[in-house]
């Protein structure tokens, strides 16, 4: 990071500076002062840190006095004025402790309690078997019930790392999701919807085809009226 200090010296030999010049110079000094305080006092990140600003994850690529250059997930460079970053909430993944994760899936509401206990035991056993990836004793809870026909289960494990290396985080999570899907298949856990009750009151009259005049007893023939 290159730091450049600029010193201005004024020697009044003529008329006083105009109000416009005073405003521009004063505003510039304010921006430079805020940027220096932001970089050297607040110092929310370093080059290479993965940060989250306005819900977007970016990696710090370059830090200057007035601006900071970030690299987005698609390798697009984004330049932020430090005076603007001063006013924003900045999340820093690199400086965070080991972080948690969450996986949710639904099962049918009639799934036997014994199978649900087996699901929890096997998920916990898998996570505790990956000691290099996860902390033991993940939290597994019934999170919600949906439409009276399914139950949503949430698994909240904790990584043995923060999310600075996002690729590794997603790789570990993907392996856990695959294991949960495998457990559900082996235990014959399924998600199905209730059958829909469809009532047909009128049908279009087909053209060019023979038409049957047989109707259910409680249906009225087209064009007929009750007396």
From TrEMBL:
One of its GO terms (cellular component) is plasma membrane. Residues 37-94 form the Mechanosensitive ion channel MscS domain. It holds the Pfam family MS_channel_2nd. The keyword Transmembrane helix applies. Gene3D superfamilies: 2.30.30.60. The keyword Transmembrane helix applies. InterPro entries: LSM_dom_sf, MscS-like_plants/fungi, MscS_beta-dom_sf, MscS_channel_2nd. One of its GO terms (molecular function) is mechanosensitive monoatomic ion channel activity. Keywords: Ion channel, Ion transport, Membrane, Transmembrane, Transmembrane helix, Transport. It is a multi-pass membrane protein. It is found in: Membrane. Its main location: membrane. The chain crosses the membrane at residues 20-42. GO terms for biological process: detection of mechanical stimulus. Belongs to the MscS (TC 1.A.23) family. This is BnaC06g30810D protein. It comes from Brassica napus (Rape).
């Amino acid at each position: 990071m290159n730091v450049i200090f600029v010193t201005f010296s004024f020697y009044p030999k003529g008329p006083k500076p105009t109000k416009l010049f005073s405003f521009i110079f004063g505003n510039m000094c304010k921006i430079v002062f805020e940027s220096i305080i932001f970089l050297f006092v607040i110092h929310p990140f370093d080059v290479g840190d993965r940060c989250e600003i306005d819900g977007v994850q970016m990696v710090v690529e370059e830090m200057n006095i007035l601006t900071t250059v970030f690299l987005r997930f698609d390798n697009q460079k984004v330049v932020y004025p430090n005076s603007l970053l001063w006013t924003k909430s900045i999340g820093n993944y690199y400086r965070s402790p080991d972080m948690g994760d969450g996986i949710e899936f639904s099962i049918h509401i009639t799934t036997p309690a014994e199978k649900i206990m087996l699901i929890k035991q096997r998920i916990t056993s898998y996570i505790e078997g990956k000691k290099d990836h996860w902390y033991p004793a993940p939290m597994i809870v019934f999170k919600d019930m949906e439409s009276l026909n399914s139950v949503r289960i949430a698994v909240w494990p904790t990584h043995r790392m923060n999310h600075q290396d996002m690729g590794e985080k997603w790789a570990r999570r993907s392996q856990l999701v695959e294991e949960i899907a495998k457990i559900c298949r082996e235990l014959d856990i399924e998600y199905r919807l209730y059958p829909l009750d469809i009532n047909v009151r009128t049908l279009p009259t087909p053209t060019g085809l023979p038409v049957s005049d047989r109707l259910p007893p409680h249906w009225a023939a087209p064009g007929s009226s009750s007396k």
